[in-house]
Amino acid sequence: MEKSPHLFMIHTDITLSELKDRLDQINRQLNHRDTRRMDDVEYRRPSIDSVETVRFSRMKLKNNNDMRTIFSIFGQYNSKGSIEFDASLIRYVENITLTNLTWMFEY
Q1: In the chain, what are the domain boundaries?
Q2: Measuring CA to CA, which residue among 29, 30, 46, 34 is closest to residue 82?
Q3: Nearest-CA neighbor of 72 among 45, 32, 98?
Q4: C-alpha 106: how far from chain center
Q5: Packing angle between helix 16-30 and helix 64-77, nearest 10 degrees?
Q6: Cα–Cα separations (whole angstroms), residue 88 to 27, 41, 81, 106
Q7: Is 78 left (phi over 0), alpha (psi -120 to 50) or beta?
């Protein structure tokens, strides 16, 4: 079952680090016990082909220039609506407790 998206607002001058921090905050609000942190963030980048069909490709965000690119593309294709991100979470070693290790080895 696919979860519905979580909508939130960001400013056009947000940095990649700030975006990841914001996504971490949202994850903690939705999943109180989840200690994972944002690892990768991808943007669903629209483009129009020769027959004017809109297609989407994934753009992995690597730096603040990529953040500026998102808003530039958004302005070209769609001045209303939402920008879609896909994010992956990672659990850092320092957040793994003995309880977590015991639980993982029991299965």
Answers
A1: 16-106
A2: 46
A3: 45
A4: 32
A5: 80
A6: 11, 7, 23, 26
A7: beta
Give the per-residue pLDDT at 66: 93
Residue 85's closest CA among 53, 62, 61, 65?
Answer: 61
Instruction: Answer yes or no: is pLDDT of 80 > 70.
Output: no
pLDDT at 98: 44
- SS3 label, residue 107: coil
**pLDDT per position as a tens digit, 37-61:** 777 888 888 888 888 888 888 899 9
- What mean pLDDT value characterizes the chain? 76
Please name the residues in contact with 58: beta carbons below 8 A apart, sequence gap of 6 or more: 42, 43, 44, 45, 86
What is the number of H-type helices and E-type strands within the chain?
3, 3
Six token digits for residue 68? 């500026």
